[in-house]
Amino acid sequence: MAAKTAILTIGHGTVDDLDDLPAFLAMIRRGHPAPPALVAEVRRRYEAIGGSSPLTEICREVTRKLGELFALPAAYAARLWTPLPEVALADLAADGVDRVVVLPLAQHSAPIYVEAVRRAARARSDAGAAPMDVVGPGNWGREPKLTQAFAASLHGALTPLPESVRPATCVLFTAHSLPVAVIRGGDPYEHEVRASAGAVATALGAGMPRSEVVFQSQGMGGGEWLGPDVATTIERLASEGVKHVVFAPIGFLADHVEVLYDLDIEARGWAEARGMSYSRTASLNASDALVAAVAAVAAPFIAGGAPA
Fold first, then answer.
1. What is the pLDDT of residue 292?
2. 163: exposed, middle or buried (Cβ count in 10 Å: 0-12, 13-18, 19+)
3. Which CATH architecture has domain 144-280?
4. What topology is assigned to 5-140+288-303 in CATH?
5. What is each CA distance from 15 to 12, 54, 109, in whole angstroms?
């Protein structure tokens, strides 16, 4: 009997109710409770963007569109909140699914997200459930359709700028920072982010202003984090005479706190305090352009020809 295949998108996850923040942060911190001051600060950031993040709704809409495109069952899971992969797999299994194509909505960390689903599938099998075949991509940050989607978004942000402003403009490609220890341990994340930024800049062509790569949203718990960070970069650019910064958060596919607060509120404030104007590329969210990029990544796995 042929396998019944389903799509399982998986994102980072976020809370819908701010009262769940302590549990959410404890999950992110591998079971260690967050200090009250950290919970309060994260709550303040959610409240500053309206009290909730649109991330879950966006991910579910991407999932719905992919299911319709491929005419397959499609479900959404979160790596660090609900619905967890084991719950999503149980629901798919109840529908007769025994082969799952995992599509991480975090392109530069895709292997970690695929492995989270594989662990959940193994745990279910160890507990007596029927085995499930789990396949999914590696890093897909340089998928050509994703590069083109980011380039189009950047073009849209640059087009309104007066010609007089362009010589004093800098594009800041951003992605979430990671602990330096992870990079030193061999994770290719930094290389892949920089390569993705280079691909987008190349796709934009002659209209591309000066650009740099920065790493944002460093953890609040101390330790050494991957940089350069946003605040330090803005300080330096101001001293170099840059008058306008365009943020292009190519490490993120959708609006979330890291974009709506860390950039649109915090980074904007830093820039304007130093006499610079601020703008940002529109997030891809559940756009047809993003769905087309994810679909291009999915297609070989759905056809059964891509390696697990």
1. 98
2. exposed
3. 3-Layer(aba) Sandwich (3.40)
4. Rossmann fold (3.40.50)
5. 11, 10, 21
Sign of CA dihedral 24, 26, 30, 35: positive
Ranges for all domains in the chain classified under CATH 3.40.50.1400: 5-140+288-303, 144-280
CA distance 139 to 107: 6
3-state helix, strand, coil in the chain (%, to 5): 50, 15, 35
Lowest mean pLDDT among 115-124, 156-165, 213-222, 258-267: 213-222
12-33 pLDDT tens trace: 999 999 999 999 999 999 999 9
How many Å apart are CA 78 and CA 13, to the nearest integer?
5
Of 241, 222, 234, 225, the closest CA to residue 269 belongs to 234
CB 10 within 8 A of CB 103: yes
pLDDT value, residue 223: 85
Query: Which of the four pLDDT bands, split at 50, 70 and 90, describes residue 2?
Result: low
Q: What are φ and ψ of residue 298, in 5° steps?
A: -75, -35
Q: Residue with structure tokens 């996850």? A: 13
Strand residues in the chain grouped as ranges (E): 5-11, 74-78, 99-104, 133-135, 169-176, 210-216, 244-248, 277-280
Between the alpha carbon of residue 303 and those of residues 184, 192, 227, the distances in Å are 36, 26, 39
Helix (H, G, I), strand (E, B) or coil at 152: helix
Place of tokens 């389903």: 6
CB 141 within 8 A of CB 108: yes
Convert the pLDDT of each residue in 211-260 to its tens digit. 999 999 998 877 899 999 999 999 999 999 999 999 999 999 999 999 99
Shortest CA distance to 120 belongs to which of 86, 79, 81? 86
Helix (H, G, I), strand (E, B) or coil at 202: helix
